[in-house]
Amino acid sequence: MKYFEIRFMDEANEFIAELDPKTIKKIFYNIDLAEQTNDPKLFKKLQNDIWELRTKYGGLQIRLLAFWDKLNNKET
């Protein structure tokens, strides 16, 4: 069961594409896990409608900001 679905803005896709393949794999693993578990260690609310996806891998701390898309009835 997915609690929500993550979609990337073009800028996020470009940023992720510049990372090494193992880091990218870890980011997507954490995203899949966050969508299914809603774990605050991976997906944390910062304020009102701003959330943060966290991935720590290979000495890097990667944080992607997330916002809710409320234009349709889907939780994205």
- Which structural category fits the helices and strands? alpha+beta
Radius of gyration: 12 Å
Mean pLDDT rating: 87
Most strands sheet:
3 strands, antiparallel
User: How much beta, percentage-wise?
Assistant: 25-35%
Q: Helix coverage percent of residues?
A: 25-40%
* Cα distance spanning the termini: 14 Å
- What string gives the helices and strands in order? HHEEE
Estimate the global geometry from the Cα principal axes.
globular
Total number of helices: 2
Low-confidence stretches: none
Q: Numbering strands along the chain, what is their spatial order in the largest sheet?
A: 1-2-3
Number of strands: 3
Oligomeric form of this entry? Answer: single chain
